[in-house]
Amino acid sequence: MSSTACRLYRNTTLGNRLQEILLQFDKAINSALAQRVRNRVNFRGSLNMYRFPDNVWTFVLNNVEFREVTELTKVDKVKTVACNSKNTGSITTE
């Protein structure tokens, strides 16, 4: 979708409502994870690519091992996208 079409869509009633719902979902998931999850998982892999455009980190790892206390899970590729949690109240368009 082109950036113009994206902006037009986001400014519609449906686009605005979807952004509100996704923001509420993000807040609920963050709260639930902070209060309910107590397990720790370690992971190790080979860094394939990383970048930091527009204050958003993107990492791609290859041959990744996730290790919990008694379990080991191996996957070929993991992509992680992370942004600053202090900006969760603002919605930007590109």
TrEMBL record:
Subcellular location, principal: nucleus
Coiled-coil regions listed: none
Domain Transcription initiation factor IIA gamma subunit C-terminal: 44-85
Cellular component terms (Gene Ontology): transcription factor TFIIA complex
One GO BP annotation of this record: transcription initiation at RNA polymerase II promoter
InterPro entries: TFIIA_b-brl, TFIIA_gsu, TFIIA_gsu_C
Keywords, ordered alphabetically: Nucleus, Transcription, Transcription regulation
Domain of life: Eukaryota
Gene3D superfamilies named among the record's database cross-references: Transcription factor IIA (TFIIA), beta-barrel domain
Location(s), subcellular: Nucleus
Function: TFIIA is a component of the transcription machinery of RNA polymerase II and plays an important role in transcriptional activation. TFIIA in a complex with TBP mediates transcriptional activity.
Family designation: Belongs to the TFIIA subunit 2 family.
Protein name: Transcription initiation factor IIA subunit 2
